[in-house]
Amino acid sequence: MIRPATLADTPRLLELTQATGVFKSHEIQALDEVLGDYFAQNHQENHVAVICEEADRVAGYAYYAPAAMTDRSWYLYWIAVQPGHQARGIGARLLKYAEEDIRKRQGRILFIETSSLPHYEKTRRFYLKNGCEVTGTLRDYYSDGDDMVVFRKRLEG
Questions:
Q1: Contact indicator for 63, 78 with CB cutoff of 8 Å
Q2: Mean pLDDT in the chain?
Q3: Separation of alpha carbons 24 and 105, rounded Å
Q4: Which of 94, 100, 125, 136 could form a disulfide with 62 if both were Cys (CB 3.0 to 4.6 A apart)?
């Protein structure tokens, strides 16, 4: 079941994110700040945080929002699945949910940024498998040797 995230979910989302072993500590700290802002105000500005539950446990989550100063462009900022639940379709369900929700909100295109580091290979394959295309790479964006890989998916037309 996919449902809206609540403030009480924050500790579980941070733990899940840490458990993936993919995100750096400053990224988890940023997520904590993003969720704080979301529950304080950003949920009123079309930001969305959703959770996928299985057997009453958080199995994954997604966070997406409109891109400022664009014509109906959106960003998927976070998507993560509990390590024991990966490769079972949860990420795909969350991504599809986000895409359908963005379409309902008249969104036209979705952008996703991720790292070029080897331990993000599964993540990049996930986006390709789910119909996203690489639209660009920003060399040395996150740090020397860690490029930003930008994916896009057209949601209308």
A1: yes
A2: 93
A3: 32
A4: 94
